[in-house]
Amino acid sequence: MPAENVSMWAYPWDLKDEGPAAALQRMADAGIGDVKVASVYHSGRFILPHNPRRKVYFPQPGALYFQPDAGWYDTAAIQPPVWSDLPEGFWPQLREETNARGQSLSSWCLGLHNTHVGSTHPEAAVRNAFGDLLMTDLCAANPQVSELVTRTVSNAAQATGADRILLESFEYMPFAHGYHHEVIGVPIAPRTGLLATLCFCRWCTEAGERDGVDVSGLQQWVREQVNTAMEHAFDTAEPFDWDKFRAGFGGQLGRYWQMRNKAVQSLLAAVVAAIRAVSDARIGVLDFGPIYGTPIDGTTWQSGQDVAQIAQIADEVHPTFYLADPAANEASINDYLDLVPDGVQIHPAIRAILPQVSGPESLQRTLAPLQGRVDGVSFYNYGFLGTQAFDWISGQAADFKVRN
User: Fold this and answer.
1) Alpha carbons 147 and 14: distance in angstroms, whole number
2) How far, in Å, CA of 133 to CA of 353, rounded?
């Protein structure tokens, strides 16, 4: 019997390869009551232990896993690719199969993390103080990007007919995010990582100048700070402090940083409004803040995402409690649950795969600090799970306790 508040993340290729009915039945047998299927996704190299067709898969970078509305897409300035293997009637079939099993269906949409768009439309991507193109990350301050992601997600809400829309990566990504063959050969302190990813694209520069920031001077100062830090990378870095960070360059770094954060928050508000205009689906926002290398600044993470804003505009927050060390993960959970405003639904995600979970005992240990304290839990990710893991999850799903 599927448990209403127990979810699992899934990719379209796994459902297609196994067959939607068979895959959804396997999840239902494990107690999964909600299935979160990617409708917009980024790149990767994925090992698929139980996939009957293949064992290694490279997703189409930045693809849409639904057919967008031609009225928008055919004339759009930026056109992400549509998945070349998209089956006819894919989402209606998922809707039919989930309904038949008493499951809900969620559409999982990525936003600013898009290597295809960043590499084919470099004007849309983040540019750091050195002029380096961070092609994995789009800039929230760019109006073309705002138009793209708003249209994409509202299209996804309509095309998928999902009960819930999950928003991921509507934020600035951290310095290290595991790009193909990413090599970081020296320690990068949190402050250095933030400065090395601070965007100085045309749109950010113009916004900063309108706010009275000496952007050219700030950009040069950031370069000097990053160069010095990397030259002395093996020296012990002082503990990160938000007040000291914002005080940089005579306080102008703090003003520029706040401008950057406002761009994220404005974009997220616009995306949520666009979904509300076309769909009655619940809206959830993924929050990767618990795994960032810096503490929260009031209610705002280093990515620009504001937990208080999410609580105001969305129906649910989906924090990622992915730390492999059980004690550190429990501490992260406790800190986060103290932070989230009252009244917002909390549906954490945990990785039911290595390095976080390696057996039924580690799964139980990971879930224990969440019992009775949240409104649901989700397991990442269907395609990555070893076959035995479905039994471990089945043993926990029925007994997971949500808060009253």
Assistant:
1) 30
2) 33
Residue 348's contacts (CB-CB under 8 Å, 6 or more residues apart) are 318, 319, 320, 321, 333, 370, 374, 376, 377, 378
Whether residue 372 is contained in a domain is answered as: yes
**pLDDT, tens only, 3-14:** 889 999 999 999
Task: Determine the Cα–Cα distance for residues 310 and 315; give it in Å rounded to an integer.
Answer: 8
User: Are 191 and 142 within 8 A, CB to CB?
Assistant: no
Whether residue 379 lies inside any domain: the answer is: yes
Cβ atoms 27, 103 nearer than 8 A: yes
Number of structural domains in the chain: 1
Position 3 scores a pLDDT of 85
Report yes or no on 385 lying in a domain: yes
Q: Which region holds residue 250: left if phi is over 0, alpha if psi is between -120 and 50, else beta?
A: left
Tell me the pLDDT tens digit for each residue of 169-215.
999 999 988 788 899 999 999 999 999 999 999 999 999 999 999 99
Q: What rounded mean pLDDT belongs to the chain?
A: 97
List the domain range (segments joined by +) for residue 63. Answer: 3-185+260-397
